[in-house]
Amino acid sequence: MIIFIFLIYITRQTQIEIYQFNASSNFSDEWVGGYFRNCGDVEYFGPSISRIFLNLESHSHIIVDAYLLSDYSSMTDFWIDESTQPYYLSYSQKYCGSTLIYFYNISRTLQHKRRTVLMEFYLHHGGLISLKLSIIKCQYECAGCIENYHATYQQWKLHQYSLNDKLSQNLDGWTFVSNNSQYQMFGCGGCQFQQFLELNYSTELPPHQDVLIRFFKIDRNTLIVNYLQQMTAKSFYNIFLLIFLFQVKNFL
Question: What is the pTM of this model?
Answer without folding.
Answer: 0.75
